[in-house]
Amino acid sequence: MTKPLTQTDKWRKVEDAGLDRGAARLTPERIEQVINQVIDKETSIRFQAYMRDCVRCGLCAEGCHYFLSRDRDPTYSPVAKMHQTAWEMVRRKGKVSAEFVRNAVQLAHTECNLCRRCLHYCPFGIDTAYVMGIVRRIGNRLGVTPQNIQDTTNSHSATMNQMWVKEDEWIDSLKWQEDEARDEFPDLRIPLEKEGAEIMYSVIAPEPKFRTQLIYQAAAIFHEAGMDYTFPATPGWDNSDMAMFVGNHEIMGRLKRMHYETAQRLRVKRIVMGECGHAFRSVYDVGNRWLGWKDTPIEVVHGVQFYHELLTSGRIQVETQIEELVTFHDPCNIVRGRGLMEQGREVARAFCKNMVEMTPNREHNLCCAAGGGVINCGPPFKETRVKGNRAKAEQLKATGAKIVIAPCHNCHGGLEDIIHAYHLDMKLMFLGDIIYKHMKKTKAV
């Protein structure tokens, strides 16, 4: 190690109202109480094993895009992040300063995407993302969270979606997209509150707020595939979950319960989710377990899986193919988190004549630097994540591709910033974008 593994350097400290005001309200007694309560009452042998078994070998460093992008600065390695945060909290039994908490929470929120790539490089399988999640949880319990992502969590609590979308605004967005789509498909309808449908389709709140074209495209694909589906009209339609990322498990639990209860109220057979990674993780792996469920109470299928089903079953067919060179980005939460490496590629290959892989790829692909809630921490930390993923820009550039397929909303946000910052001549597409544009539209006029 060429540098001491100390608390986050002063030059890395970024002003943020949520972190600064929250830390200013802390007392030594409150800090000690919350840290010990979370560690003693909310963690288990898993956390204890990680704290005990790490031998500080540093092999995890090669798995971190921040380390690779910051000229291999050892203070950005996963082992250093644990040293600067959780280890100190445990070693000092919660007797740390408010400044320490403030900097530890900033690090856990903005210098770790919870991507779990480093786990593949650790000889003991230590999950740094889990440890950083505990640090975030401690920060949230202490009222120390980056302001932008806390505002989003507040929206979840008040409206059950992350964008403060009101119920009538949600319904109006669906009606608007139905009207738009009927110019192309005169008999297309977007079913609302249809009980007993095969599928409930759920989206994340940025779609009705900023990307309504994705609702249009999904409706067109469902229409052409002849699917029996519905959207809910009530809260529970948004499957996103910033509460999971700030460590507010109580709100996360409310969100997931509402999501599943909405599907059960409509008596659908399964939930199909749009192209979002973190929401999928929250629904099938984190939120449901916080609620004490061994599994999901109703089948959940990610958009990548669903599109693969439609293609392989013949419900959608290829009309034209993309000629330009295309590459495929692996979203962390559906690849490292769920193992969906091949389905998306098979769909992409069907619609794209020329594909090239990034190196490395699949479970070893580099994160977009926007996941884990990092992009939701807002403008103060944009430079942190963009400069923290120069390695991804180099990976993208090396492919020579003109199109990057990224089946995840956060990946689009992160990769778009990287493409612009590093002047890459590429455009981003969802799988839904490609399918809609290039599938056979037998009922179109």
TrEMBL record:
Keywords: 4Fe-4S, Electron transport, Iron, Iron-sulfur, Metal-binding, Transport
Pfam families, A to Z: CCG, Fer4_8
Gene3D superfamilies with a match to the protein in the record: Alpha-helical ferredoxin
Domain spans labelled 4Fe-4S ferredoxin-type: 51-126
Superkingdom of source: Bacteria
Domain Cysteine-rich: 326-415
Membrane-spanning segments: none
Gene Ontology MF term list: 4 iron, 4 sulfur cluster binding; metal ion binding; oxidoreductase activity
Database matches in NCBIfam families: ferredox_TmcB (NF045724)
The protein, known as: Fe-S oxidoreductase
Organism for this UniProt entry: Desulfocurvibacter africanus PCS
